[in-house]
Amino acid sequence: MSKKSQGKTTPDLGLQWETGALGQDEAFAKVSSQSTEQSINEALNLELVSVRFEKTLIEDLKMLAEQNGISYQPLIRQAITRFIEAEKKRPEQA
Predict the structure, then answer these.
(1) Do 2 and 10 contact (CB within 8 A), yes or no?
(2) Does residue 75 contact residue 61 with C-beta atoms inside 8 Å?
(3) Whole-prediction pTM value?
């Protein structure tokens, strides 16, 4: 897809980000500073945790994440969030 602007055709940047045409070239990647990382974590309300998983579970998570076009850590976050939300909706058992 492209957009016409003043007679010029420009590529749809959103599509390029989604398909990986933009943003995946290591030449333009750099490690973020600790203050940037802290700002992102605070803005998204994230906290670093350490969990040990079986290697086969990690391999399966990475495979599923790739199929969904994300990395495995956000997939784990999504799975845990869905589980917690479902558990909160369950009636209390006596």
Answers:
(1) yes
(2) yes
(3) 0.58
Query: What is the Cα Rg of the chain in Å?
Result: 19
Fill in the amino acid letter for 63: M
The secondary structure of the chain as a DSSP string is -EEEETTEEEE-HHHHHHHTSSS--GGG--PPPHHHHHHHHHHHT---------HHHHHHHHHHHHHTTS-HHHHHHHHHHHHHHHHHHSPP--
In the predicted model, what is the mean pLDDT of residues 21-30?
A: 80
Contact indicator for 38, 49 with CB cutoff of 8 Å: no
**Residue 17, CA distances (Å) to 60, 69, 74 in order:** 26, 12, 18
Strands 8-11 and 2-5: antiparallel
